[in-house]
Amino acid sequence: MPAYSTDQIRNVLIVGHAGAGKTSLVDAMIFASGAKNHKGSTADGSSFSDFEKLEIEHRHSIYSSVLHCDHKGHRINLIDAPGSPDLVGAAIACLPAVETVAVVINAASGIEVVSRKMMEAAKDRNLPRAIIVNRIDQCSAAALANLVEKIREAFGAECLPINLPFGGNQGVVDCLLNSDGKSDFDTVKRVHAQILDQIVEMDDNLLEKYLGGEEPDYKALHNPFERAMDESHVIPILFTDAKNAVGIVELLDAITMHFPSPLEGNLRPFLTGEGDGDKVNERPFDYWNDPAKPLLAHVFKVTTDPFIGKMCVFRVHQGKLTGQSQVYIGHSKKSIKLGHVFHLQGKEHNEVNEIVAGDIGAVAKIEDLHFNDVLHDDHALDSVHLKPLTFPNAMFGLAIIPKARGDEVKIGQHLTKIAEEDPTFIWHVDKQTHELVINGVGELHLRMVLERLAQRGIAVETKPPKISYRETILSNSEGHHRHKKQTGGAGQFGEVFLRIEPLDSQNPVATRNGGRGFEFVDEIFGGTIPGQFVPAIQKGVHEAMEHGVIAGFPVQDIRVIVYDGKHHPVDSKEVAFKSAGKWAFIDAFRKARPALLEPIVSLEVTAPEDKLGVITGDLSGKRGRIMGTDILGGGQAKVTAEVPLAEVMQYQSQLKSVTGGQGTFVMDFARYEPAPPNIASRVTSAFKLAEEVD
Ligand SMILES: Nc1nc2c(ncn2[C@@H]2O[C@H](COP(=O)(O)OP(=O)(O)OP(=O)(O)O)[C@@H](O)[C@H]2O)c(=O)[nH]1
Ligand SMILES: [Mg+2]
């Protein structure tokens, strides 16, 4: 039996912009709690949390890591996430594992884009939040007072300090337990009254007594405080200096005293049912974390340990998990035994007998277990799954070419593994260009992937991948082809007449085909072409559409109507009609005002307000349409725009040069649009169909 029960657990995800000091905070908490008897530091590679080779080299977190410590009779699980905008997927993936998201803000640089994004992401998942203002040693009292105002402006008046620095950032004073005392800015008295006013509102009894002049027992305020956090009625602000261990014990105290336990917190968005769209029986579960109920655990992280191989890290939401448990993965009817279950402490994994409801654990070498899987031991839970998380899109692409011949297979194996661990990474071999293309959130993200390959001894060259254009038509036309071959014995004969028409991409058929819009209509009367050959014609049309006609890119948004033809009682064969269909389509396509479509992306750029002008100017010069600008508060502004992907393939470095490195962006596919004539002619002029005569 573990030394703690579910109500004594606190799960906290530590997020925020890169360099805010998240990892330093976690290291400091681990040391302060006595979980380790020496200090860990990112500065010399001794961090308990940033232990991967790449993290030590870059002095940044790249993967999330799970650690724990015990404080005043409570078990605190801490998940330290990376803060680079490119790596935010690793933070989002961990949201389902915790009750509370603590957003760390760098006191010296203010509210940055990842902190803002994670405040929103946590709110979207209905997760209680806290704000930790770190690096206070690098900030004056006046600047800290100003930052608190900016935080409240950006995230609401519910953001309230629960402690304040004193003695010139030498310590912090708890403003809930103390009704008076010294502080560097504001006054303990005022802040004490402010936070009390807010939390007594959660409990009518308490409120009545409080209004009657009775002071509550501050130590007994866990329930109303926790509920205030659940309802975003309070977002506590705490101050720390991770470097000099200021405010660390007070942070551990606040986590244990005020933050929700797994029995509290908000309901998890677990759903039941099948399919997509309108699920009739979709409903969140109404009870969690009961150890007496059937097991329900969710895998939020997959990683590879150099010694034991694949590890899946899970959060138990209900019931308990032991190494001996017979469990099922989602719909699987085959039960598995996990063998051994572990608690994680950074790179260390310590075998334990069981992982209780509300706790976080790991299991090794279960190849069938994947990211986002649900483990359970009751078939009633077969279809339980988590409401999908919203990850940033893998919009940034690179084509990679192995330096050593024959490395393709090895590269494929490694990329598959990386994609399994990282929900924001994908790779494929492009059918049109035959390039091996990797896609990620940004340049840094993919650089980390390439460095991981390099660590395995695989060197590659990279180049921007070719843009995936599409082809379509702008007017109706007719096409015809007669396929006739007479070589010695049996001949081949098939003749096809067809019409083609542009298909609106908003058409429901187009949408059903994943936006690739295609409709095939059979209008053949009187058996001019026997029914058995129609599928062959469609196959031929498909083949032509896949390979493109004017530039070698797939054709979309088109209706093909086959209305006449001829056959021969002996020589007509499928192969003949396939060829006739293909060439009749090509004939029609060429006469139907063919057009090249280019991908348009939507861009959301965040930067200091004074950079708005250069950003919008630069985007307009890139054929972009500015859709809006927003002042975000805290001196930051946001520009939204739609731009052709071809113009922003290198946007990371372009934005860096126009903003002096102060801007960040997210990019998402919007739609295909006809490319302007100069671009279309450049792309199409280089293209010739492989076999003009069949
Ligand atoms: N002066 C000072 N430096 C700090 C403090 N906290 C962290 N640092 C330093 O800030 C740098 C970044 O700290 P990390 O803990 O790696 O930051 P992080 O938020 O984990 O960054 P990512 O992992 O990249 O998201 C390191 O050089 C730390 O030593 C602090 O409170 N005061
Ligand atoms: Mg870090």
Please give a structural write-up.
The chain is α+β, with helices and mostly antiparallel strands and 694 residues long. The chain folds into 5 domains: 6-258, Rossmann fold (3-Layer(aba) Sandwich); 272-386, Beta Barrel (Elongation Factor Tu (Ef-tu), domain 3), CATH 2.40.30; 400-463, Elongation Factor G (Translational Gtpase), domain 3 (Alpha-Beta Plaits, 2-Layer Sandwich); 471-592, 2-Layer Sandwich (Ribosomal Protein S5, domain 2), CATH 3.30.230; 599-680, Alpha-Beta Plaits, CATH 3.30.70.240. It contains 17 helices and 34 strands. Strands 15-14-20-11-12-19-16-17 form an 8-stranded antiparallel sheet, with no helix packed on it. The longest helix has 17 residues, at 574-590. The radius of gyration is 30 Å and the shape is elongated. The model is unreliable at 277-284 and 506-515 (pLDDT under 50). The structure holds guanosine-5'-triphosphate (GTP) and magnesium ion (MG).
Summary, kept brief:
The protein is of the alpha+beta class and 694 residues long. It folds into 5 domains: 6-258, P-loop containing nucleotide triphosphate hydrolases (Rossmann fold), CATH 3.40.50; 272-386, Elongation Factor Tu (Ef-tu), domain 3, CATH 2.40.30; 400-463, Elongation Factor G (Translational Gtpase), domain 3 (Alpha-Beta Plaits), CATH 3.30.70; 471-592, Ribosomal Protein S5, domain 2 (2-Layer Sandwich); 599-680, Alpha-Beta Plaits (2-Layer Sandwich). The chain contains 17 helices and 34 strands.
